[in-house]
């Protein structure tokens, strides 16, 4: 409610500058701009603090907001100048339910051309983690990026196209590539040393799944002995909403059992390691079951030695090997 009051106060104080706008257009502008914070930050100077709203919007964002809100480019720039601090400081403008679906339709209709969609997946790290990196020492954010198409499987809204999927890269003596959940260096995938388990987990090269979906699968496995194949079928038939990828999208929206198993393994390992402030490190290449085998073996040995009385049964197994 406080954000709404602040918004109304800004509109009252700038009535002359925004007198051509309807309240609906203002709310659309605030909602859409709030979804684009990462896209707004990417082309900004590397010295800019992420906690401060940029003075200027990228041209692609300006033209998208102008088209999506049915306002002129000049009005778009004026709206940003007046409302940017409120948009930047608040997390309460995210659309939900039917509002999200309406927002998604607008982004698919107008944002795809500019490389913008309502859900973006950016690495959680904005600066290089190498302490010897010169950019890191200067406090400069990572700016070299690669764009990829991907699919995000959600619980409430089904599968969603995500664009761009960015991997930040910086060439040092040993190059580090930054993905959403992890960075890659020396052939190993090292998950970020976060204090909490991420809400979205990458399970394939172009597939991401909400943690809530993976937790649902684990519940189905434990309570009703549902197989990974049937977990995938359950999502595809009951939760996907029969959504289809946009025209020209490279990847389909159908889940398979490998995505389920990868999500199960990664989440289980993170739930074991993160509370103990340990980092998950696995091979970056090879078959999925081989990538995580070493980490599963270490976890299982610890469970046998130090865990519950039922320790002989508490083992994490990739059933694809059976």
UniProtKB/TrEMBL annotation:
It comes from the Eukaryota. InterPro entries: CxC5. Residues 118-238 form the CxC5 like cysteine cluster associated with KDZ domain. This is CxC5 like cysteine cluster associated with KDZ domain-containing protein.
């Amino acid at each position: 409610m406080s954000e709404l009051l602040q918004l109304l106060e800004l509109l009252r104080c700038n009535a002359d500058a925004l007198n051509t706008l309807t309240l609906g257009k203002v709310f659309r502008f605030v909602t859409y701009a709030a979804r684009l914070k990462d896209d707004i930050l990417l082309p900004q100077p590397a010295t800019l603090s992420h906690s401060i709203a940029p003075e200027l919007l990228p041209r692609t964002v300006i033209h998208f907001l102008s088209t999506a809100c049915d306002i002129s480019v000049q009005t778009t720039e004026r709206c940003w100048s007046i409302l940017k601090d409120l948009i930047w400081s608040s997390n309460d403008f995210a659309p939900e339910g039917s509002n999200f679906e309406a927002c998604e339709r607008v982004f698919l209709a107008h944002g795809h051309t500019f490389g913008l969609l309502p859900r973006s997946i950016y690495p959680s790290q904005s600066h290089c983690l190498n302490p010897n990196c010169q950019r890191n020492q200067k406090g400069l954010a990572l700016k070299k990026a690669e764009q990829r198409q991907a699919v995000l499987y959600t619980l409430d809204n089904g599968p969603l196209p995500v664009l761009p999927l960015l991997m930040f890269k910086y060439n040092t003596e040993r190059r580090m590539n930054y993905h959403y959940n992890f960075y890659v260096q020396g052939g190993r995938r090292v998950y970020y040393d976060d204090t909490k388990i991420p809400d979205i987990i990458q399970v394939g090269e172009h597939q991401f799944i909400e943690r809530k979906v993976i937790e649902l699968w684990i519940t189905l496995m434990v309570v009703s002995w549902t197989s990974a194949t049937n977990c995938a079928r359950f999502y595809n038939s009951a939760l996907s909403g029969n959504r289809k990828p946009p025209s020209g999208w490279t990847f389909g929206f159908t889940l398979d059992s490998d995505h389920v198993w990868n999500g199960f393994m990664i989440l289980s390992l993170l739930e074991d390691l993160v509370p103990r402030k340990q980092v998950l490190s696995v091979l970056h290449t090879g078959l999925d079951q081989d990538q995580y085998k070493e980490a599963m073996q270490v976890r299982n040995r610890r469970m046998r030695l130090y865990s519950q009385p039922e320790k002989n049964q508490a083992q994490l197994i990739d059933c694809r090997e059976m």
